[in-house]
């Protein structure tokens, strides 16, 4: 097995320095929050009753985290759309946010076109590309993603840009103190999980070693619903590993029936239960039921509890743990965690295909 405590491992397998981008998450979040506070917003952007976020990949997951945070505050409803077509008509009470790291995501640009033909307020979050160009030409408020590296490495930047604007519009109650608490918690998390911390004292290295050669089933609910999806996608993109995620309590209404056959290959899988520190009584009980069913069927699982603290700090520290786990798993598998050759090939093939015209 790859020696995660050997500095040469990182030099050989991580030439682009993804480890440094993981370490910089606190600074990335801080910069994004400050940027969001400086954006000039139209005076008439009030009376918003529904936020719609269009995006794919890491851009959409930032929307998921914002959605879960808003739900925990019983704030404005947020809908995240990963598709070419808006599923409902937008009105003047909607805020549509087009998110794309590259600015060239076809699905996001399609949604933007439809939103611009509606009465909705429209905001762009982009690292440039066509989305940035359209925002400038159409005089749309634009938040610029100023994070290096892969789109998935800009999650913190995307999220804090979103939350900063939503907070200024009175749509979520995230405050500067909440952000500061999250930054402090993130710095502490980096100090626990960084590559210089030996495996014997590093929970992320330990979990990555346990996941080696296994299929990960990631289960979470409430504040961590979007976090579970992030863990799954990071295992896919960084470690190039199969992984699945499901939400609690929904999985109790279908997936648990598969537990009785999953036990046959139990040694080849590991269930991870991501539990928010302040889960409601009802949600907490559902976690207990999932644990009991896994235990009865002899399926290995790990309960990973979120750290105490404000919701934003809980989300970001759990995200960072998953990011580090996927990173270390890539190295264990002797894989460069940064490159995504099949994802890039898929985009190339999509660009060559004929694109159907929108109605």
List keywords for this structure.
single chain; 359 residues; alpha/beta; Rossmann fold; 2 domains; 14 helices; 9 strands; 48% helix; globular
3D structure, described in words:
The structure is a single chain. With 359 residues, this protein is α/β, with parallel strands linked by helices. The chain has two domains: 136 residues, Rossmann fold (3-Layer(aba) Sandwich); 136 residues, 3-Layer(aba) Sandwich (Rossmann fold), CATH 3.40.50.10490. Helix content is 48%, strand content 13%. It has 14 helices and nine strands. The strands form two sheets. It has a five-stranded parallel beta sheet with strand order 2-1-3-4-5, sandwiched between helices. Strands 7-6-8-9 form a four-stranded parallel beta sheet, with helices on both faces. Helix 4 crosses helix 7, helix 9 crosses helix 13 and helix 10 runs parallel beside helix 13. The termini are far apart. The mean pLDDT is 93.
What's the short story on this structure?
The chain has 359 residues and is of the alpha/beta class. The chain is 48% helix and 13% strand. The model has no long low-confidence stretch (mean pLDDT 93).
Q: Strand content of the residues, in percent?
A: 5-15%
* CATH fold type of the largest domain: Rossmann fold
Determine the fraction of residues in helical runs and give it as a percent range: 40-55%
Number of helices: 14
Reported CATH architecture of the largest domain: 3-Layer(aba) Sandwich
For the biggest sheet, the summary is:
5 strands, parallel
State the distance separating the first and last CA atoms.
54 Å
Mean pLDDT, to the nearest integer, reads 93
How many structural domains? 2
**Strands, total number:** 9
Structural class by sheet pairing and helices: alpha/beta
Assembly classification: single chain
CATH superfamily heading of the largest domain? Glucose-6-phosphate isomerase like protein, domain 1
Please trace the helix and strand order, writing H or E for each element: HHHEHEEHEHEHHHEHEHEHEHH
**Rg:** 20 Å
Q: What's the overall geometry?
A: globular
Can you list the strand order of the major beta sheet?
2-1-3-4-5
* CATH class category label of the largest domain: Alpha Beta
| Low-confidence sequence ranges | none
